[in-house]
Q: What sequence folds into this?
């Protein structure tokens, strides 16, 4: 029987990830703390979307631990990702609506960590 892996995507503060991505400190084992609701399931695999965008250079990030990928993103980039993965905000289910509201409330001049973690 195969071990089931859980995969989550969420937004974290940039304080631990930014120095790693800038090469100031070595990657840390584990994932940054979550400040947002989790990204809900979608017809597209959200975890895979984030990892492939990091690997392909569409998002500025890298693998920061054995099963954790992080990217520094602006609220505008988060909004575009939500629209791309989930479609436009028409009749969103409650979990997605909560995530969209969270992203809309983020300060525009800041960057945040987009985290794809598997355990």
A:
């Amino acid at each position: 029987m195969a071990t089931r892996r859980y995969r989550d995507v969420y937004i974290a503060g940039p304080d631990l990830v930014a120095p790693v991505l800038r090469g100031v400190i070595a990657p840390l084992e584990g994932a940054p703390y979550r400040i947002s609701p989790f990204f809900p399931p979608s017809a597209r695999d959200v975890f895979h979307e984030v990892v492939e965008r990091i690997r392909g250079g569409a998002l500025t990030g890298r693998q920061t631990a054995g099963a954790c990928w992080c990217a520094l993103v602006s609220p505008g980039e988060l909004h575009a990702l939500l629209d791309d993965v989930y479609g436009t905000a028409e009749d969103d289910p409650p979990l997605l609506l909560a995530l969209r509201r969270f992203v809309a409330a983020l300060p525009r001049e800041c960057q945040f960590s987009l985290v794809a973690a598997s355990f």
